[in-house]
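Incident log, structure service

09:12 report received: a user says their structure output differs between two submissions of the same chain.
09:20 pulled the input from the user's history:
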Amino acid sequence: MLFHTGRPLTAQAAKDAIERTIKLDGGAAYVWAAVKTIDTPDPYTLVFHLSYSSPLALQASADYSAYIYDTQPGSGSQAGQKLADWLNAGHDTGTGPYTAQTWDKGQEIEVILKQYGKYWGGWSGSHFTKVVFRVVPQDSTAAQLLRSGQVTFIEQISPALWSSFKGDSRITLVSSPSWQNLLAQLNVKSLSLPVRQAILYSIDYQGIVAALRGAGVLSSGLVPPGLFGHFSDLPDYSTNKAKAAELLNQAGYGPGKKKLNLSLTYTQGDSNEQVVATIIKSDLAALNVNLSTQSLAWPTQWAKGKSANPAQRQDIFIEYWWPDYPDPYSWFVNLLETESPPSYNLSYYSNKSMDNMINQVEPLVATNRSAAEQLYRNMQVTVLQQAPVVSLYNNNYQYAMLSGISGFRVDPAYPNVVFVHDLTP
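09:34 re-ran on a clean worker, output below:
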């Protein structure tokens, strides 16, 4: 097996990649947190020595920070070039079926991948030999491009446009559940517990799901169905306007009381998030709560949420979440563990008991799965009681592609990944 640089993928090369990721300590590098040392007894074997029990086989399948890549790219005059410089120049150092041909950051045709002839999986049979990633901000434009045959595949567009393809023999539609959900993080520093609970009782969850026309389903807790740690019988919030008004009244707000002014941010260009924000605004308005909604580019939204000045932060932060690997850990370690300064914990929640449970759960996944499952249940019950974050719905991905393509499959852990080499044109 070869890297796209031409160097062989050996145990030492894999070790170098993992150790580099651990040293950088960025992104989801915590997936390797238990790794103490790595041995390479032969060219194709890695032996991991852990400082504590951890489900390493699951963690090694992570979406992020588990990549195995060539840490020594370049040849000839480029030999020894820093890896970051190599990658930022539009190269890649993986082992997959396609390699980078061009990368034009910020352009409509942003990335083009070409066939890597020495791919270890081979090229027998019919395959796509080139992959073009086209950035199309408007769903209506994307739909037109698919109808005209100028694009082959659309990962996800608005439910209304997706439904408009029904009955078109030129288009194949696929709807599939994912391990992804849309979250609302509630600012525990600016919102009291009764107010947070009132907000969650005010939301019309059924109305949101109906408006999404199949792109979302009701949640139970933070963990989506099909994933270890999901329970269908948790004490979830449901719409209860009377209870919401009662809780707001306790805080001095609500119908006939002082108006409460709140802010919500969501990601610009996401039509489903816009629908959700509009519904929540309407739900709260009926309770004498004025919700200001703001659509922001993700870097701007995230920077606002992480602002060093608490007065600049939002009251409600809307974002998608999914597991880093097939385990619920990332919902808890990233969103609910005490952080200072905040990164993804944009409810600014801090609870020593929750921190302790988070620190205990992954060793239990490796050694006592039933105890880990119960701990995930306890954590979700605590979250529902204290209301720092709620899942508004679980995502159903709605894909559209030109008819005639076969081999498309969906993995709920990687719903936004198309395994192109598996497709037959």
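09:41 both user submissions now match this output. Likely a transient worker issue. Closing.
09:42 reviewer note: The mean pLDDT is 95. The chain has two domains: 11-93, 178-396.
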